[in-house]
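Rotation project, supervised by the postdoc (A.L.). Task for the rotation student: set up a whole-complex structure prediction and record inputs and outputs verbatim in this book. Inputs entered:
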Amino acid sequence: MTFFLQLVLTGFAQGMVYALIAIGFVIILKCSEVFNIAQGHFVMIGGYLAYTFLVPCGLPMWAALLLAIAVAIVMGLLIERLMLRPMVGQPVLAVVMMTIALATVLSGLATLLWGAQYKTYYGLLPTITVKVGAVSIPSESLIGLIVSVICVVMLMLLFRFTKIGLAMRATAEDLQVVQSVGIKATTVYAVSWVIACVVGVIGGILLGGVSGANMELANIGLKAFAVVLLGGLDSIGGAIVAGIILGMLENVAAGYLDPLLPGGGLAQVFPFIVMIIVLIFRPNGLFGLSRIERV
Amino acid sequence: MGLRTGTFQENYAQDMAIFRSRMRWGMLLALLIFLFICPLFFSDRILTIMTMIGIALVSVHGLNILTGYCGQISIGHAGFMAVGGYTSAILCAKLGFPFWVALPCGGLAAGIAGLIFGLPSLKIKGFYLIMATIAAQFIIIWIIIQLRSITGGTDGLSVPRPSIGSINLSSKSNYFYLVMVFACLATITAHNIVRTRAGRAFIAIRDNDLAAEVMGVSLWSYKLQAFFIGCVYAGVAVSLLVHYIRFASTDQFPFMDSVWYLGMLIVGGMGSTTGAIFGVVALKLLDELVTIVGPILAAAVAPQTAASLALMSHGLVIIIFLIFEPRGLHHRWEIIKAYFRLWPFSHEVSD
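Outputs recorded:
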């Protein structure tokens, strides 16, 4: 039982981070109908940025966080202006290939700047220890959980109470109407990319604190796809719920089934199995808007 | 598609001919002769590059039928290739089948894998299909690693020396001939498949699936046919590959390979047989350039620049083509041809 609880709690905290990353994906998808394959690479860049600012530069945590976010904002603006703006109105494949190419360029950049090496800044994030009964919650998971909750709440507030949030929701609803009432769609696109980059980088800082910054962090983006598919492609609430579900399922499945399988590594492939099942039985996910379309 | 001034199609056979004039036939013959005397004066290294180009070409022709003509985007092509490659390798290494039996079996196995993962394509399209094929890629590789007793897991599987009858194919030049025969056959069949009833159905589905279905094109049948044909090509290509390297391992089928095959299509031009050839040759030559320049850069600047250059160059090439020439090299080639055909005039009346 303790083992099970441990797995569930770790999964819950991990799932919150997945949800955070998946939200970045959903925001871009909702606002500009771009499927951002490179979301996981923002996470990887986030991990490396945190390492750079914390270890070689020796900055305090808050300064490193602010600087990483600043870099993320610039990155988001540049990506949107240079790569995605020319892709407006292009077929799905062209847009997806563009984000895959972006992912490759980001991998290339990370290789160039950090040598594709494993960099750790373990222990530099603040620590909190909490024990629930016999189960101790790892400090990193808890920090991840808290930061993710703060980010999600801030995003909710942004969407609910600010003008740009309203514009973003409206763009997600109907692009033509938005343009005809004089909202600049390009601004909305730019903001959505900035938000996606920032949440990706924050997720990267959190995950990097647990597992170290390395190129493998980019694979988390693939898990985020499973999360968004499960939650419904266009639902932020769905992304959060699905993130938590997937985080828990993955941990429990890996905890119990990995010893039974010779090669192990179920945690890596688990999101894809979920993905296929969702795609076959419920393509709109748990909370997605079901479009009536017969093919 | 214009014709040279004064050339007229007088009957259906002329209209459908791939090679219209004696000159075209002559050019084809010259190309074939060139290909088949290559081993006489090229070094082993260049032959290896050309063999690899030939193998990739077979695979990309398959992807072109599936994605370029039928519009079913697959980013799991390397996964389907893995199925074919392992089938062929296991048949040869463990069951002692001859090479010429294992090769079509590999193609068939990949085709069946394509059918299975193509099934969701009946319900989903666009991005959902992309995700399904990406999932296929990772699940297939995972299953191969799990079936350690048959596939050798992460250790890989060595494949015996390929031979057909008494002809030994292990020398570079012999294998080059074999691959070139397959590359030419693949090109001809790919070009002809899209001119058949099925090919026209594929194009109709790509352009507007709803309209196609209303016109009486069975989406169910033709989408699966496209997946099957595309994956059979992949399986045959990869059988050629594993018998050439004489080793099969999961590292040969990374996710990024699936992406590069699509990248080759984008660079070359989707939905055109010539485009597939252009794309494969261009990106494979870029690869070679990177392997030559990489170590020089690595020695001059820093060791990681070589790996970085490989990633960045591919990414940037795709970005540049998507922004500046989304219709690929094939389109540019048509423009150049039209220029010379029309010279000294600057416009065609129609088109």
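Student's summary: Chain A touches chain B through 42 residues (CB under 8 Å).
Supervisor addendum: The mean pLDDT of chain A is 84.
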